[in-house]
Design brief:
Blueprint (H helix, E strand, L loop, with lengths): L1 H9 L2 H21 L5 H8 L10 H27 L4 H22 L7 H12 L7 H29 L3 H4 L17 H23 L6 H10 L9 H22 L5 H18 L4 H19 L4 H35 L3
Organism: Cryobacterium cheniae
Keywords: Membrane, Transmembrane, Transmembrane helix
Membrane topology: Multi-pass membrane protein
Length: 346
């Protein structure tokens, strides 16, 4: 029995269950309230639950608080762009600020993931969803409430461990990760190099997507941010390959789900399963995790702004490939620059 519990623990069931619950509860409330068109704000607030994995609770409280604040600010920035009908230059400037601030915050507080992918995703989607001026505050409050619920769920293990007492080591996974504070991150040249790589990548990928008239250009941008590593992490070409192949297979799964025209409740189940599966696999195999991440992301996008399903699927594949190729070019350029530096005499 102990071995069975231990094997389940290695699958991060605790984290995956909390993440699924964090997104299902607010989405269910929105369905009952007849405002499923606000799904994006609830979903991005719920992404607070994706932070603080494997951290002791005294440190996790800081991590998830910082993450929640960044997600809510990103949603607010996107809402501001949407309600004011901001022109493309303003949207791009906002994107550059979100990327810069996201990487600086992640590097300062030791967030994992160390990239600004969720902040960028929240900003871009909320900027694209039309929002009337009189609904800005309630939409933002949905994100705040969802983030608060996710915060409570992410910290709930503290009480569960106290109740379990001496048996907590057998029932719950260990918490070995210690996020390191780095107040001087803003002076780190490697951090600014990562920011520069991300800015160049998103401008190039987003510009190409717009020039070619591909719908949902933000997916190309998100793909770049997802593939490029955080400061001092290894530049891996395999991650781009995993993202492209995993996305293509995930789009096939999404098509099987969305094309029959399922009910809203069925879509919420898809989101819950996607969130659960992604959290189980994300630390083990990135490509396999995308079999769940892709249906999750596309279903949230579909609920927020319904479009023709075939168009949604094709745009996702094309723009993910575009962003992946741009990221690969940046990775190769970074490797070439590193090799040239290593050949120079001291």
């Amino acid at each position: 029995m102990f071995e069975r519990v231990k094997s389940l623990r290695t699958l991060d069931l605790e984290v995956a269950s909390r993440a699924s619950l964090a997104v299902v509860v607010p989405l269910s409330v929105l369905v009952l309230a007849g405002r499923i068109d606000w799904a994006a704000y609830a979903s991005f607030g719920a992404m607070t639950s994706l932070y603080g994995r494997s951290e002791p609770y005294r440190l996790r409280a800081r991590t998830v608080s910082v993450a929640a604040a960044c997600l809510v600010v990103s949603v607010a920035a996107g809402l501001a762009m949407s309600v004011t009908g901001a022109a493309l230059p303003a949207l791009v400037l906002g994107l550059m600020l979100v990327i810069t601030a996201g990487i600086l915050v992640a590097s300062t507080y030791g967030l994992f993931p160390g990239t600004p992918i969720f902040f960028v995703f929240a900003y871009l989607v909320c900027a694209q969803v039309p929002a009337p001026e009189d609904e800005v505050l309630p939409r933002l409050l949905v994100a705040v409430a969802s983030a608060a619920l996710a915060w409570l769920l992410t910290m709930s293990g503290w009480a569960a461990r106290r109740l379990a007492g001496d048996r907590s080591g057998d029932l719950f996974k260990e918490l070995p990760r210690t996020p390191l504070l780095c107040p001087a991150a803003y002076r780190d040249a490697q951090v600014w190099l990562t920011i520069l790589q991300n800015l160049v990548g998103v401008l190039l990928a987003g510009g190409l997507a717009l020039a070619w008239g591909i719908g949902h250009p933000y997916w190309a941008v998100v793909s770049v941010v997802a593939v490029l590593p955080p400061p001092r992490a290894a530049h891996s070409l395999s991650r781009a390959g995993h993202r492209i192949v995993g996305t293509v297979l995930g789009v096939v799964v999404t098509g099987l789900v969305l094309l029959p025209g399922p009910s809203v409740w069925a879509l919420i189940v898809v989101i819950a399963v996607g969130q659960f599966g992604a959290e189980i696999l994300i630390g083990k195999h990135y490509g396999a995790a995308l079999l769940f991440v892709t249906p999750l992301a596309l279903t949230v996008a579909y609920l927020a702004s319904p479009v023709a399903v075939p168009t949604l699927l094709v745009d996702r594949v094309v723009e993910t490939a575009l962003g992946g190729v741009v990221a690969v070019l940046i990775v190769l350029a970074a490797r070439g620059a590193a090799r040239r530096r290593s050949r120079r005499p001291d």
